[in-house]
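[recover] target loaded
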């Protein structure tokens, strides 16, 4: 088989389901390029973009904002279980910009109060917002 199926599943259901020649994942250990017939693999994902090169056109690339989770590669299927995910075309950039500003304010406030837990939460929220903004730029 010269292609694989890529599925992204969130608590809200299937976010993405297409055939691909290539997928680029951002794992906690670095980037992982996945091609058809790859050995079975499981990896933890970080907050970053997912790149999927579709089979319908060599230049057709889908970009998906992934907010953590795990990926399993098995039998020409890449299954991603993500905390949340959005395709580039579905991202509300205005909402992402508001989330970015809110997270920056929360981070500044937490740092001024020296609240380490609140600062970590704000950093994660900021990273997610920046990831969504970055992925939306691929439209």
């Amino acid at each position: 088989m010269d292609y694989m199926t890529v599925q992204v599943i969130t608590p809200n259901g299937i976010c993405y389901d297409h055939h691909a020649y290539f997928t680029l994942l951002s794992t906690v250990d670095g980037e992982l390029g996945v091609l058809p017939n790859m050995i079975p693999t499981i990896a933890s994902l970080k907050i970053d973009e997912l790149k999927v090169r579709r089979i319908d056109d060599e230049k057709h690339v889908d970009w998906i904002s992934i907010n953590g989770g795990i990926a399993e590669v098995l039998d020409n299927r890449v299954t991603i279980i993500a905390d949340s995910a959005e395709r580039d075309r579905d991202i509300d950039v205005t909402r992402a910009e508001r989330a970015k500003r809110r997270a920056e304010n929360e981070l500044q406030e937490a740092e001024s109060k020296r609240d380490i837990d609140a600062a970590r939460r704000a950093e994660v929220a900021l990273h997610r917002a920046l990831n969504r903004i970055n992925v939306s730029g691929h439209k």
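[recover] notes: The first strand starts at residue 4 and ends at 10.
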